[in-house]
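A.,

Following up on our hallway conversation. C-alpha cells first:
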C-alpha cells in the first residue's frame, strides 16, 4: 500500500479556520487529519503542497515513524509550527488508514485502553458580556449540559499588569462561575500567557480561595524561567504547552519542575505518535496530560484515541458543543459528551468520515484571534 494523494480542505468560521487533510492510498483507503492554524492557513497548505511530492507520495502509510522523520528533518531547516502542523495532519491520517486497514480503532493500535470513558471540559461557552451575572448564567448552561469541568479566560484585554479595579473585576467573574457550578465542578483558568510573573502570582493568590484546578499559561510560553518564578510562589497547579510545537522543547519545563499539566496540541506537535512520546516522558516526571484542542471533529477524534491509551491523561478540551456546533458535521462520528464524558470511539481508524461537500459550503472567512481586544466579538475575523 502506498500513499497516492494528499488533499486539503478548509472550513471557515468567524474566528477559526479548520484545515482538513485527506490522504488517499493506491488501494482506495483514505485517512483524515486536521489542524487549526492562527493566521497561517495558506502557509500550511503551501507547505503541504511542497512536502507531498517530496516526502509523502509513494510512502507506505504503515511506516509512520519513517514518514515523520523525513518530514521533520529531511528539509534541514528547523521544523516550526507550520511544518509540525503539516506533519500532524498527515501522520494522523496515516493512523486512520492503518486502523481502517486492520479493522481496529486507533486506540487499540496504541496499546489498548486504560479507561472506559474520557472526561471532557467545555470551552467556548462564555461568549457573553464580562459581567458576573452573564458569566454565572452561561456557566449554568454548561453544567445543565452535563459537563463537570469548564475553562475560561476572564481577563478581557488584560496584558502584563492589571489595574486594581480590573483585577477585582476578573476575580469577581471567577467567583460568579464558582457560585454557578458549585464546589465539585472543575474550574480551569486560562491566562493566555498575558502577564508578567509578579502579576501572575498576585492574580493566582487572589484566585486560590476559589480553588481552580489549574492556571494556564500564566506568563508567555517562551521563557521557562519566568514560569519558574510563578511556580515557586503559587499552590495552584500550572498547565502549559499548547504553543510548544516540538516535544524536545518540553524538556526544560520538566527539568525545572514548573509544570503540573502539559497541554500539547496533536494538530501542532506532529500528530498522535509525537504526542504519545511526550506523554510517556511526562509520565516519568509524574506530570499529567490534558491535550489542547480548539479543532473540529477530526482533531477531537484523534484526541479521544490518544486519551484512551494514555495512563497519565487528565481531561480533554472540547469547544464544539458551544462554539460553532455545526462544524461537527464536517466529519460525523465523534461520540457526544454525556454526563461530562466522551465514550471511547469504536469504529475502525479514527471513526469519522470527511464530508467535503459540507466543508465546501463553509469557506474560509479570514479568521483571526486578537487576544487583547475587549469582548469576544472583537476577537473574530472579518
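Then the amino acids I'd put at each of the 382 positions:
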Amino acid at each position: 500500500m502506498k500513499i497516492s494523494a494528499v488533499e486539503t480542505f478548509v472550513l471557515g468560521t468567524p474566528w477559526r479556520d479548520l484545515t482538513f487533510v485527506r490522504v488517499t492510498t493506491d488501494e482506495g483507503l483514505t485517512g483524515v487529519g486536521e489542524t487549526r492554524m492562527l493566521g497561517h492557513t495558506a502557509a500550511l497548505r503551501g507547505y503541504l503542497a511542497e512536502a507531498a511530492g517530496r516526502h509523502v507520495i509513494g510512502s507506505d502509510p504503515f511506516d509512520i515513524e519513517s514518514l515523520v522523520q523525513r518530514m521533520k528533518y529531511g528539509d534541514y531547516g528547523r521544523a516550526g509550527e507550520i511544518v509540525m502542523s503539516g506533519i500532524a495532519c498527515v501522520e494522523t491520517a496515516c493512523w486512520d488508514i492503518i486502523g481502517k486497514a486492520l479493522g481496529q480503532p486507533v486506540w487499540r493500535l496504541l496499546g489498548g485502553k486504560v479507561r472506559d470513558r474520557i472526561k471532557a471540559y467545555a470551552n467556548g461557552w462564555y461568549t457573553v458580556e464580562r459581567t458576573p451575572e452573564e458569566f454565572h448564567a452561561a456557566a449554568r448552561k454548561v453544567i445543565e449540559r452535563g459537563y463537570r469541568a469548564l475553562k475560561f479566560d476572564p481577563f478581557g484585554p488584560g496584558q502584563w499588569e492589571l489595574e486594581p479595579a480590573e483585577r477585582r473585576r476578573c476575580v469577581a467573574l471567577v467567583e460568579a462561575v464558582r457560585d454557578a457550578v458549585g464546589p465539585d465542578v472543575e474550574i480551569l483558568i486560562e491566562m493566555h500567557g498575558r502577564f508578567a510573573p509578579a502579576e501572575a502570582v498576585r492574580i493566582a493568590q487572589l484566585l486560590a480561595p476559589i480553588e481552580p484546578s489549574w492556571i494556564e499559561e500564566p506568563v508567555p510560553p517562551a521563557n521557562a524561567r519566568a514560569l519558574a518564578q510563578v511556580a515557586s510562589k503559587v499552590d495552584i497547579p500550572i498547565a502549559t504547552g499548547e504553543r510548544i510545537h516540538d516535544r524536545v522543547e518540553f524538556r526544560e519545563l520538566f527539568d525545572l519542575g514548573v509544570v503540573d499539566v502539559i497541554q500539547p496540541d496533536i494538530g501542532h506537535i506532529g500528530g498522535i505518535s509525537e504526542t504519545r512520546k511526550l506523554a510517556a516522558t511526562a509520565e516519568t516526571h509524574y506530570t499529567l496530560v490534558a491535550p489542547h484542542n480548539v479543532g473540529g471533529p477530526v482533531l477531537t477524534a484523534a484526541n479521544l484515541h490518544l486519551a484512551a491509551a494514555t495512563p497519565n491523561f487528565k481531561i480533554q478540551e472540547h469547544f464544539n458543543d458551544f462554539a460553532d456546533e455545526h462544524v461537527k458535521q464536517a466529519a460525523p462520528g465523534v461520540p457526544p459528551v454525556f454526563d461530562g464524558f466522551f465514550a471511547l470511539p469504536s469504529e475502525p481508524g479514527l471513526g469519522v468520515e470527511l464530508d467535503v461537500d459540507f466543508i465546501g459550503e463553509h469557506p474560509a472567512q479570514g479568521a483571526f484571534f486578537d487576544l487583547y481586544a475587549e469582548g469576544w466579538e472583537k476577537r473574530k475575523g472579518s
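The chain has two domains: 3-105, 108-349. Curious whether your intuition agrees with the design.

B.
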